[in-house]
Amino acid sequence: MAEIYLNLLILICFCLFAWGLIRVERVYQYPFFMGIIFISFLVPQAFALTQNPGQVSQVALERVLLVSCTCAAACLIGYKLKPNKKWLVKLDIPIDERKLFKAGIALMVIGFIFIFLINNTPVEKGANGNWSGLNTIYLFFAQVIYIAFGIFLLQTLQRPSVSNLIFTAITSVPLIQTVILYGRRQPTMTLLVIIGVSFFLIRRYTPPRWIFITVIVLMALLIPAIGLLRGNFWTLLFSGNWQEVLSVSQKTFNYLIDGDLLELRNAALLMDAAEHTNRYGYGTGYWDGMVFQYVPGQIVGYDLKRLLQFNNFETYDLASMYGYSIPGGSTITGIGDSFIEFSYFGFLSFAFIAYIFKNLWISSVYHASTFSRLLYMGLISPAMVGLTHGTGRFFQEALFQLIFVGLVTYYSRIKYKEYMQYMEDR
């Protein structure tokens, strides 16, 4: 059955990809870009896990492949549901563009202040190698620079002017530095997504189909290499040392296919542990992620922060059950975390995210809602990370976007009297 499920997964993923290529305007919609991530990230891992299951039993292997199929299919099924008319009305918020410009400047200043603090504060790391201490708080607020960049880019494409161009260039600097100097994958994807979606929403520009076919191949080959080389990847690329780039890409891809270290193996074993112990989170894992992201232990105390969490994840003793420990720096994927929350109904997390994107897309494209456009651009990267790292990551970052884009929109909205005039002129 494992081979059947693997073939079914490949078929579903390529159906998502084909769905986007049939009509080019779909390339910025949820099913298509999730199809790209499934093909470039999950399918190679599924193939490698099938060839080298390690501690994963045949039953656990079949389970993780079956659930992967349902999650991939849910990306399209959830998107096919009719949009919610009440949501669309609430999303259609008239905006004063002058106030929006001021809000963008405020976010830009906040972003640069916290970037400065990050650069001048010694980095503290926890036992897992992740950042800890004040830098985690600074990093949280520094991310508003992405929203500022989106605001200025949209305004530049709508009404090109010297001031719009200058502020777009200024806000792009830290993003480009993060991509070039540090080789971070998520900021790279975020920057490309913001630019691509902005050009489509304002100018209706879509790249040729062959570009996306090329992207699939490059992502499968280069993503592991970028993760390994970080900033050195771009150094090699810009120096014209293609041979070294190709060599490292080939080595990392071969290492992935060998299956010695696979995120999908982490997912398979966690899912098996949840099934055998009958311990599921039922959404508490998502809550724990919110607490981890938004409750600063440096301020309220780590004991209180831990008290606010359920920590059901710690009940899965993989070492004693399978003689396995999740390698540092690896993830459990969205397949794994959605299953340990809702068992075989975990695919509904992907369907729900798809439904959110459907409403935002309709509101952005057909109602020209600035609020929806900014949210849409800000949520594409978290949605893709939702597969590679966990669906909980999507909801954490979605709340961040909702808070700050919501504040910007609240400040920039047109008041009632202005709104009546706006409707008459519309």
TrEMBL record:
Source species, domain of life: Bacteria
The organism's taxonomic lineage, starting at the top: Bacteria, Bacillati, Cyanobacteriota, Cyanophyceae, Nostocales
Keyword Transmembrane: yes
TM region(s), chain numbering: 6-24, 31-48, 60-79, 100-118, 138-157, 164-182, 188-203, 210-229, 342-362, 374-392, 398-416
Keywords: Membrane, Transmembrane, Transmembrane helix
Protein name: Oligosaccharide repeat unit polymerase
